Amino acid sequence: MPIFVKLGENGVVEQLIRGASLSEDELGALEVIPFNPKINPWAVPADTIMLGQGVDKENVHLGYRTTTGFLKLRPMLTGQSVTGNTLALPACPAGTVIEVQDLSGGEILHSLTANADGFTDTITFEDTGQYSVEIDPPAPWLDMTLTVEV
User: Fold this and answer.
1) Any idea which architecture 81-149 has in CATH?
2) Of 145, 143, 123, 7, nearest to 70 (Cα)?
3) Which of 36, 59, 66, 87 is most buried, judging by how many CB atoms fall within 10 Å of its CB?
4) How many of the other CB atoms lie within 10 Å of CB of 70?
5) Domain extents for the chain?
6) Peptide bond just before 34 cis, omega within 30 deg
7) Over its length of 150 residues, how does the chain's per-residue pLDDT go in tens digits?
């Protein structure tokens, strides 16, 4: 049975679909997209691509379609660290939105947007408690939520 992924905004994978699970409405709105020129084309929705054999279906939800049409894992931010009451943010691409929230009161303490690729900063927490730091980079990067306890 063929397996497909439904693509959302910016080619990011939204859903894994097994061929037999397409609804009547989806089947009625299919567009033929050639899968392999040596075989008959498969009929799939326009915002969907078929997965080849051997694709890691466990992590396909972390994928996105590249400009060349291949499915690739979305990049992850790395390099964050906590020392005492200070969080060093990972290097972020331009346009990343970072929001710091006090978990005990739900108050948003700080919000900023990365203005250049490789943006990094440190956040110092003055009071003891638990904080959530949401890092929302532009596609295709994966979002990240850090919990910091001081």
Assistant:
1) Sandwich (2.60)
2) 7
3) 87
4) 11
5) 3-73, 81-149
6) no
7) 556 667 777 777 777 666 554 454 544 443 333 334 344 344 455 566 656 555 566 677 677 777 766 677 788 999 999 999 999 999 999 999 999 999 999 999 999 999 999 999 999 999 999 999 999 999 889 999 999 999
